[in-house]
Fold this protein.
Amino acid sequence: MDLGLAGKRAVITGASKGIGLGCAVALAREGCHVALAARSADVLATAAREVQAAAPKASVTTHAVDLSTTQGRRALLAETGCDGEAAGGSLVDIWVNNAGAIPGGDIVTVDDTTWRDAWDLKVFGYIELCRAVLPQMSARGNGVIVNVIGAASLRPQPSYIAGAVGNSGLVAMTAALGSRSLREGVRVVAVNPGLIITDRMGDLLRRQAVDEWGDESRWEELIPADPAPGTVEQVADVVAFLASDRAGHVSGTSITIDGGATAR
């Protein structure tokens, strides 16, 4: 299926590894010009080489910014032409919000500083970037925002309380924005990955192993067999489809990618 994404300009946050990097590769392979944003310039450079190897003809740029701060978010918006200065609206066709790694832990073990720092990056980061990008896309009359959120919003667990609460809010924001945005030719959608094979999977399961058994070394015992964890590519392919005109009537919706786990 030709997704018709050739020549589109996409920004992916949290793009140096994991799902963000996977999304960058998938979009580049479809012919998008991709801008990768993350905190570490060195890690971003490695990621850019991986994207370029997967899609040799793609245009790849990197933006080393701290997206947990307003200054970092404003810098990215300026560097990608989404700061309101571009004539006719945003210079970006697809914006993928993915930066964020809310740690595990229950309501007692996650202290105030950890909770606030995590939300500054993911929850308030997504909010502020949507607040900036959506009006710019609306002014031009087209564009897609894809929020990579998480299945914890659908099945909240006490061992991942900060993530469950934050993700639930972002799902609600996606629904609220996407319910009306198509009037201006813009779509706002989300994906909710479940357990996906990334470094982060190990981090979360180590925290869960501590909570359940007091022993993080047993984390591999928590990897389910039915359904088994998904792959980055499985998430990235859904993101690429949602970002395309093939999904032109999809807005305000969050797609769960978890092998059916939350439906049980």
